Input
Amino acid sequence: MKKSYLVFGVILTVMLFILPGCGHADNFDRKYQEKYVNLFEANKYDELFAHLQLWESKEPNNPEMFIAYFNYYIHRNKSSGISIDRERWGEGPTMAITDPQSGEIAGYMNESTQYDTEDVLTAVEYLDRGLTIAPNRLDMHFGKIHILNEIGRYKMAGNGLFDTLVISKKINNKWLWADNEELEDGEPVFIYSIQDYYSLWLNAATEESYEQVKLCAEKQIEQYPEYIHAYNILGVYYSMNKQLQEALKYYLQAETIDPNDCIVLINIGRTYAGMNNKQKAQEYFNKVLEIGDEQYKQYARNYLNQL
Output
C-alpha cells in the first residue's frame, strides 16, 4: 500500500497528554489537586502514590483524581532515547545521517520516548474508571486514545475513538475539558480534532491500524453524514488498498457535500488517473486550476503533467 496521501482540511492541535492542572473542579477541594501537582513536578513518585490513595479515599468521584493516577502511571517509568529511522518524525530534535559515498540523506536520528506498557494499560484503566463518572470529559477520551496509539495498541485506540463517537451523539457534543470547563463549539472541535488519528493510523501502515481507519470513519459517516472528512479518509483508505472504484464512490460523495473542496477534487482526479480515465482526471484537475489557491493549483499542474 502507498503511504502518500493528501491530508484533509484544517486539523486542530490537540493535547498529547493530559497534563496536571491547577484550575477548579466543581464541588471538590482544590488542596488535593494542588499537592498532587507539586509532588508530580518534583518527581516524588513514592509520596505521590500515597497522596493519590488519600485523595481517592476523600474524593472518589473527582475526575481530576483519575487523571492524576493516569499521569502517575504514564510518567513514573517513562524514558527517552535516540532511534535511527529512515524518516524524520516527531517534534523533538533530529539529525540527518548522510551516506558518505553518495552524500544523500540515508536516515535520521530521532528523539523518542519509551513507555512501560503495563504502566500505560494501568493508567488507561484509571481513565476508564473516571469516564464512567464523567463520560463528557473529552480531554480524558483524547488522552486515552493518544497514549494507546503511542504504544502501538491501535485496536484499543480505535475502539476508544469508536466509543467516543457514540458518546458524542448521546451528549450532543456538550463536552467538558480539564477541570470540568465547558468546551465551546464542541461538535466542530471534536470532528476536526479526531482527523489526526486517521492520519496516524494510515502512517502506521499496519493491518491493525488500517482496520481502525475503516471502523471509525464508517461510524463517523453514520453519526455525522454532513461532514466531509470521513468520506475523504475512506477514499484514501480504499485507494491505498488498490480498490479504486470503492475509493471513487466515497470521494464523489464528499464532492456532493462540498464541490469546491480542492483536496477532494485532487483525490478524485488522482483516482480517475489510476483508473486510466485521462479525460475525467483532466476535468477534475482543471477544476482545481479554476478555484484553488496557488498551492492547490501547483498540485493540479503536477498531476496534469503526469497524465
